[in-house]
Write a structure and sequence with these properties.
With 523 residues, the chain is α/β, with parallel strands linked by helices. The protein has 3 domains: 104 residues, Beta-Lactamase (2-Layer Sandwich), CATH 3.30.450; 160 residues, Beta-Lactamase, CATH 3.30.450.40; 209 residues, EAL domain (TIM Barrel, Alpha-Beta Barrel), CATH 3.20.20.450. An 8-stranded mixed beta barrel has the order 12-13-14-15-16-17-18-19. It starts with 6 loop residues before the first strand and ends in a 13-residue tail after the last strand.
């Protein structure tokens, strides 16, 4: 099967992909590990609707072999057409064990555009729209671009892109073309005006502007009537087997209006494509809006508590500093909370709020004890650290995580250089691929070895060798090593020995449960 020129995909009885041959990978553009465990719907283009796939699976599930043409989408977004044969496999007892799909890529045999658009200008235009759609500055800008492209359809004077909100109203996201509205449309409309399309899963529908049923509708359809449009179509936007909005198309041409019913299949495909193109991004936007509300509440209500974990000199056991960490009132893991905040666009603001609370809570510490604060490159470059530093009554060490990408090292160095009484640490060294680049470019005062290097280091020779190398490197750079995640006396003694071998033992620091867990400071 590996040498076959035809694509072969095998799924288990639950339709999860368990095998894909090299021809499948070449046709689809996916890597094998991206397909294993996925449902074959990962290949769907959105041009073939839910009813098409339901009919296909009914035939396969009955034990019959299905043969037909699938219009699929490569990983890079390109469309391709496959002639497919899909069969179910049963064991000796008649139990379903797998499905096998054998597909032949028809790209070289006939052009997809010619296949879909023979004597059909709508489909020809729809394919052109799909090729020209691209990510732009915002969802609204993309919706406006989409509407502009849609008005290339023969006789379509205007298009409006409406999204269904959770409160069952439709909101205008984009519009273009000669306006068929008598006045500017309101920002939202009751979803009841297209209830059948939105909730019933119906295909594209011609709006009969003289029909009493439509005359009783409100807002948007009344505006269409007032504009004396000759005809209009409402096409559902479908994604993940649900309708996420509608596309309203209108024409002023009586001849075009009379022909709209014969064009509904093309309009329905257009709506399905729009749903597939915008669906994931709309869901992500809604998710970001929800996260933004949650994070804003956390910041405004100070719904978190600063805790502190000590840094100690391995040679003497003396506490020389504390790392400020955060525990959130809702009990969620801090890394998840900060990740959500960055996804919502409030990461630097949350970092600054937590750092400010830590600085305030640490006011009672002895003056020679330094405080380590975590800031992302985005927060530093956004100058969120300066107000925090201005209120600190001790030396501050800024920790920059090794996992975060830094586009401009010089800019980071300039920010840190402008902060008073501040030193720099690179966090999580050894956990990724950019540790040495961070260290060489930033020239930090401290390098924190990741817990993955320290765990069981007393019994793991490979980790000892790597840590010894990092200690030697740090000694040459005049940088102090901090070993994170020290949990046992044996680990601490091994680290002390490794530091001594390169002359680092006098300055090597440790952090971990062996020395102290993160906790609030005594008042």
């Amino acid at each position: 099967m590996r040498q076959s020129g035809e694509s072969i995909t095998i799924t288990d009885s639950l339709a999860n992909i368990v095998y894909a041959n090299p021809a499948t990978l070449r046709s689809s553009g996916y890597e094998l590990d991206e397909l294993i465990g996925q449902n074959p719907r990962v290949f769907r283009s959105g041009l073939q609707n839910r009813a098409f796939y339901e009919a296909m699976w009914r035939q396969i599930s009955s034990g019959a072999t299905w043969r037909g043409i699938l219009v699929n989408r490569r990983k890079n977004g390109d469309l391709y057409e496959e002639e497919a044969t899909i069969s179910s496999i049963h064991d000796e007892d008649g139990e379903l064990t797998a499905y096998v799909a054998v597909k032949r890529d028809l790209t070289l045999e006939r052009n997809l555009q010619a296949s879909l658009s023979s004597n059909d200008s709508d489909r020809h235009t729809i394919l052109a729209i799909m090729r020209e759609m691209r990510p732009v500055s915002s969802l609204e800008a993309m919706a406006n671009l989409f509407c502009r492209l849609v008005t290339r359809l023969d006789g379509i004077d205007a298009a409006t892109f409406l999204i269904l909100h959770h409160d069952d109203v439709l909101g205008v996201m984009g519009t273009h073309g000669e306006s068929f509205f008598a006045t500017s449309p309101p920002p939202t409309f009751p979803a009841s005006l297209v209830a059948e399309q939105v909730h019933g899963g119906h295909p594209a529908t011609v709006v009969d502007l003289e029909d009493d049923r439509w005359k009783e509708s409100t807002e948007i359809l009344a505006l269409i009537r007032d504009s004396r449009a000759a005809g209009a179509v409402v096409a559902p936007l479908r994604w993940n087997d649900s309708t996420i909005g509608v596309l309203v198309l209108a024409t002023r041409d009586e001849r075009i209006a009379k022909n709209l019913p014969r064009r509904l299949a093309a309009f329905d495909q257009l709506g399905s494509y729009a749903g597939s193109f915008f669906g994931a991004q709309l869901e992500d936007q809604r998710h970001r809006e929800s996260l933004r509300s949650q994070v804003r509440r956390i910041i405004d209500q100070q719904a978190f508590t600063p805790v502190f974990q000590p840094f100690v000199e391995l040679a003497t056991g003396k506490v020389v500093g504390y790392e400020a960490l955060t525990r959130f009132d809702d009990g969620r893991r801090p890394d998840v909370c900060f990740k959500d905040a960055h996804h919502a666009g409030l990461g630097p603001e949350l970092e600054a709020a937590c750092a400010q609370a830590a600085v305030q809570a640490a006011q009672t510490l002895d003056a020679e004890i330094w405080l380590s604060l975590n800031f992302s490159p985005a927060a530093l470059l956004g100058h969120f650290a300066e107000p925090v530093m201005a209120r600190a009554n001790r030396q501050i060490v800024l920790e920059i995580t090794e996992h975060d990408q830094i586009e401009n090292y010089a800019a980071i160095r300039n920010v840190v250089a402008g902060l008073p009484n501040c030193r720099l640490a690179v966090d999580d060294a050894g956990a990724g691929f950019t540790s040495l680049a961070h260290i060489l470019e930033l020239q930090p005062d401290f390098v924190k070895l990741d817990i993955s290097l320290i765990r069981d280091i007393d019994t793991n020779l490979a980790r000892q060798a790597m840590t010894a190398g990092m200690c030697h490197f740090a000694a040459q750079m005049n940088t102090i090593i901090i070993a994170e995640g020290v949990e046992t006396l044996a680990e601490a003694q091994t680290l002390l020995s490794l530091g001594a071998s390169v002359g680092q033992n006098a300055h090597m620091l440790g952090q971990g449960y062996f020395f102290g867990r993160p906790d609030v400071l005594d008042r």
